[in-house]
Amino acid sequence: MTGQVRTVDGRVAGRRGQETRQKLLDCLREMLSTSPYRDVKVIDVARMAGTSPATFYQYFPDVEGAVLEIAEEMAKDSDGLKELVAGKSWAGKSGVATSEELVDGFLAFWRKNDAILRVVTLGAAEGDKRFFKIRMTVLNSVAKPLTDAVKDLQSKGQADKTLDPAAVSGALISLLASAAEHGKAFTAWGVKVKDLKPNLAPLVYLGVTGKKPPK
Amino acid sequence: MTGQVRTVDGRVAGRRGQETRQKLLDCLREMLSTSPYRDVKVIDVARMAGTSPATFYQYFPDVEGAVLEIAEEMAKDSDGLKELVAGKSWAGKSGVATSEELVDGFLAFWRKNDAILRVVTLGAAEGDKRFFKIRMTVLNSVAKPLTDAVKDLQSKGQADKTLDPAAVSGALISLLASAAEHGKAFTAWGVKVKDLKPNLAPLVYLGVTGKKPPK
DNA sequence: AACTTGTCCTGTCATGCCGTCAGCTTACCG
DNA sequence: CGGTAAGCTGACGGCATGACAGGACAAGTT
């Protein structure tokens, strides 16, 4: 399906080429997690990969192009997140468990990919369609099934029907993303890292069901 | 209090100098709202201001330094946001009104300053202490009084005491910030811009009071 | 008006990164 | 072993950076 990997000038990349390409991506990823995005230079990435800048340009049009590649890979990875919500129950205590697992799983994914997600988030906020799409893919992996869950609860009369299911689930997912990205803010507010989940989960439960979580 | 404005090399700036300096800041602000942060160059800002790059470096150590200046100005502005919450009632319908005004006011502020806040948010996420502090100042303008409100409700037995007031209010403010910054995501979810407030406000009310909003 | 003083701006320069290309090396295949 | 395509890099023009010295300018003094 995904035609062979090609260099910028149209050659097909062989075994060795793909290795170099991958090494460049790995080094870029590393670079992004250690220095500000604005300061990431092609020459540094190339040096770290033990190759030359010219080689970088053989595989990627520019830094942004390579970042997009990493981001797309991560977006594929995010597909598994839908299992955090799909088919789960929101009734009573099992609902509390669902919300806790959702918070835990989503935060873990975001933190694991925090460096690349920072850049994706910035790009999306700046209006770049490609980054926006990637961000939506990640968010939707959870937001879509969560919207379905809210709709389901509404149709059973167990949730406020005046609310838009997409808006509610979108808001809750935005909250989780923001909390994951800016965990330090909570620390500054005196909230310990381990207290984050126990405080976010009830909010999620509350948002989805409209009810206080049972003890 | 704030000692005179000084150039990088220590001279005090006079009338004309301050004008130039201000023009550079204005152009940088403009630049940030029209092109990606990564691509903002000193030479472009200088050109737009009708001056030379060398002049820019007389007033600011680098682009980041100038951005910090703009951000600090905005942080001062954010002080007025505390009126959105301080001294407001959360009881019954007036509580609903409070939450609506909070959502409205906060979103408006964030959108008005979206370009600079994007950069601040990125810097904070990347671990830069100066940007982090500025972001906290903005968030705290609302988060602090909101935390007090939650504490107050808890002490009156009108809210779940097992929740950490700082965590709850921090989460709600994070949600608002995220919604403001990524309004387009909601549009993509089929939520119209004018439906954002009516959906966010109940969530805020719900989070603060733990109760369903009265109709 | 000429002079003085301190502010303000810019031409210029060394440095370093960007992005491209021609050309060399390496690997694979018949 | 020659042919072919992949893989890599040195070198180069172009541009941004950041520093400095010196000239332009405003305002007050004599």
TrEMBL record, chains A, B:
Transmembrane segments: none annotated. The keyword DNA-binding applies. It comes from Kitasatospora indigofera. InterPro entries: Homeodomain-like_sf, HTH-type_TetR-like_transc_reg, HTH_TetR, Tet_transcr_reg_TetR-rel_C_sf, TetR_C. Keywords: DNA-binding, Transcription, Transcription regulation. One of its GO terms (molecular function) is transcription cis-regulatory region binding. SUPFAM superfamilies: Homeodomain-like, Tetracyclin repressor-like, C-terminal domain. The keyword Transcription regulation applies. Residues 18-78 form the HTH tetR-type domain. Residues 41-60 bind DNA. This is TetR family transcriptional regulator.
